[in-house]
Amino acid sequence: MSVSSVALEVAVGADASLAEQTRQRLCSQGRLDTAAEFVLQFAPELVQLAHPSGKENPLLVDFAAGAVDHRRKFGGGKGQDIAKAVGLNKGVTPRILDATAGLGRDAFALASLGCQVDMLERSPVVFALLADGLARAQAAANGEVARIANQMTVAYGSVLDGLTPAHLIDVVYLDPMFPERQKSALVKKDMRFFHSVVGDDPDADGLLDAALAMDCARVVVKRPSKAPLLANRQPSHQIVGKSIRYDIYAKRKLA
Ligand SMILES: C[S@@+](CC[C@H](N)C(=O)[O-])C[C@H]1O[C@@H](n2cnc3c(N)ncnc32)[C@H](O)[C@@H]1O
Fold this sequence. Notes:
Layout: E1 6-10, H1 16-28, E2 38-42, E3 47-50, H2 66-74, H3 81-86, E4 96-98, H4 105-112, E5 117-121, H5 124-138, H6 143-149, E6 152-156, E7 171-174, H7 189-198, H8 204-212, E8 218-224, E9 237-240, E10 244-250
Parallel strand pairs: 1-2, 4-5, 4-7, 5-6, 7-8
Antiparallel strand pairs: 2-3, 8-10, 9-10
Bound molecules: S-adenosylmethionine.
S-adenosylmethionine binds near residues 100, 103, 121, 126 and 160.
């Protein structure tokens, strides 16, 4: 799948430093195009990705609203599959590296269960959306959202480029893009939008190898239930749900 180019709009009062970093990153990837279909808008109060046709809602990260907020309130706590996959049901609260952060939804769910979560994201557009959403959440009037967001950090880059946190990590969490198989109506609109600016992650097998080489207790891979194993590597165990599966590669006991 080809990845769409992006145009930038920077308003007076917007985060000029984040906008300039994003411009340079997109330029170096040859993905900045003033006539592009998608426009990354840096406004004083938020960053969003707009589709000029107006057919789709702009994409932005808002941890205090919508599906993320609903999941925080009614998501099922430590009984949900993602919590079991990282070992939260074993009475430990692991420190997690989310090496494929995306829009930070899984990371926020894990932080809301008490985990410290460090996120890495390599797409310049997704990083800008996520960094903006996290900064707004950390300063949110909703004290609970602010408390959770302050257990999260985000950095631009990839473990494939040797980027690793300076402190100990218990779990490396991976959720690379999976090629869309379903036709438009079945895939949520915002995810289709997201897919066209991120593309697929054809190097995801190598990401699992890099994660397994890190000093951690386990690596957790989120996949569609019927998807093949990453790198054809057999996990220690799996948690299989209706549409999502977690492959757990245990290296040592969680402390
Ligand atoms: C399916 S999305 C993750 C969604 C995320 N779990 C969430 O809950 O919002 C995959 C993301 O991982 C990022 N990604 C893929 N491979 C990466 C790598 N090697 N390093 C950093 N980010 C990566 C992609 O750019 C994309 O934004």
